[in-house]
Amino acid sequence: MLWLQGGLLVATLILGIKTGLILGTSWLNRWWLIMISGIFGISLYGLVLAFSAHQQVLVMFLDRYTFVGSLLMAVLLIYLGLQQGPEQGCSSFRQPVEKALKLGFSLGHWKFILGFLPCPLCLAALSFSIILISPMVGMSLSELGRVIALLFLALVLVTSVAIRKIVQLVKFNPATIFNTLLLFIGILTLTFALTVPNFVQSMAMPLAPLTISSPHLVALVLVVMAGLGLWGYILYQISYVKDCDNQ
After folding, report:
1. Of 36, 111, 42, 40, residue with least CA distance to 77
2. Which one of 16, 41, 144, 242 counts the least CB within 10 Å of its CB?
3. What is the pLDDT of residues 229-244, one digit of tens each?
4. Euclidean distance between CA atoms 219 and 112, whole angstroms
5. What is the pLDDT of residues 127-149, one digit of tens each?
6. Are residues 55 and 154 in the same domain?
7. Does 233 lie in the same domain as 130?
8. Full domain range(s) for residue 19
9. Claim to verify: residue 148 and residue 228 sit in the same structural domain
10. Which helix (H) or strand (E) element contains residue 178?
């Protein structure tokens, strides 16, 4: 049972920290960070209660739309990460954070709102995990859902406030960091969406143990690789000594 609890905690940590990182590098002030963190926690708890009576529907939904939804979310994050507002640019990377945080909500900013929302499929999957694990750990669904929701809320809030403090200390324009982080998470989401389903499917297949037909051949390959590495290191040292002598 410990690995189930650990898996749920790890999933909550990853989603909470990821959401907090994006929130902390957004243009929102501290009160908005607190309010949105609370909304995220309440939403997770609400999903747990709403889906508790419709587990089969949730399973079918996640099984059918997780891959497509992950691809769409990845494309959206990459698109938002590549956008550049009129207040941004190379010269604004160290723009004073006070000025950047006072830009407010312009029409161009509203397109970034989807960027710091956690993936709806991620929240649905996390709520489904809570529903499945609650009877295994001896806790009621309401109690476990409340604990995980509070943990998720705290992670989002603490991470976002900490990142905001760091941004203010280094005097970076949060919009620039926000876009870079969106691009990175978008690429990471796309990579996971393309590789994780294949990995899970391959793990479910019956696999025969690998047999080595010729251990001597494998040993020879390892010796040759080690020799090539040693040869490259010696050539590098010789070249380095010659350069030092020439200087």
Report:
1. 111
2. 242
3. 899 888 888 887 777 7
4. 55
5. 877 887 877 777 788 888 888 88
6. yes
7. no
8. 2-204
9. no
10. helix 174-204
